[in-house]
Structures are given as structure tokens and as C-alpha cells.
Amino acid sequence: xxxMIANYGTELMILILxxxxxxxxxxxxxxxxxxxxxxxxxxxxxxxxxxxCELYEMEMEVPINKFYDMLRKWAEKYSVQAETNxxxxxxxxxxxxxSKVLMERLQASNGTTEVKGVLEKALKxxxxxxxxxxxxxxxxDTMMENLPIDKQNEATLLWNSLYPDDIYNECGPRF
Length: 175
Known about the structure:
mainly alpha; 9 helices
């Protein structure tokens, strides 16, 4: 009986160790497909690629300008400053083009003045480099929640008409 309890104790300890170690064995990049990466990242070491993915885990939580600074610091560590600066410039250009396309579509749309005003503020908020994407989304959610239900529905329909799948075709490829 004592030997059986000792065996269960050993098995329990092994299970606890496995549960504690297993999360640290996972990869930050496990959900990424090769086409999700800028091409220069795929040429780097596994450690560099893991760190790149780890940075992107924080993307929503930090202001965009700080995130780009973190990417630049990473690039310096792996001697890919030129490629990273080009990548950041392309990202910023893409975001600028997307914002321009969406603003033009919003101005040409048939929404009410109130709803168009809220969506315009949302678009301008998304351009802020000094706020985190999570914070921006929370502010937009609050603006939407403050609208009457019928205006929330109108805003959702209008936004969906502004932001169709073809937005990526109009703004060009991402990487």
C-alpha cells in the first residue's frame, strides 16, 4: 500500500513538472504561417524569429511608436536595421493609405451626420502613434456604446460597407 502511494506521489510530481515546463516549450511563432513574416525575418536564426514573434505578442498593448522602437532595437541586435526600417516604413505607408481610403469612403457614404462623425473620430484615433491599439479600441467601443441602439446598428452597417475584403487590394500588399 505504501509503495502504491509512493508511485502515485511520483507520478503526481512528474505531472506537475510537465504542466509547469510545457508552456515554456511552446513557440511564440507557432500560429504564424511563413507568409505572415516579412521575408528578411525568415532568413534569421530561430532565436531571432522567436523574438520577433514575441514582440508581436505585445503589439496591441503598447503605443505604435513604442512598438516600432522595440522592433528597431530588435533589428539592431540582429543587424537587420535597414530591412526593419524599410518594413516599418511600408507598414506606416500601408496604414496611411488604408486610413485615406476609409476616410474617402466614409465621406462619400450615405450615413447620418452623427454616425459619420463617430466613425471619423474612430478613424482619426486609429492614426495615433502615441496610443496602444487596445486603448484605441476601448475608446472606440465606448463611443459606439454611447450611441443609441439604432445608431450603433447604422454605424456597424456603414463600417462594414467601408471596410470590405477588397481594402487590401486598394492599399497594396503588406510585405
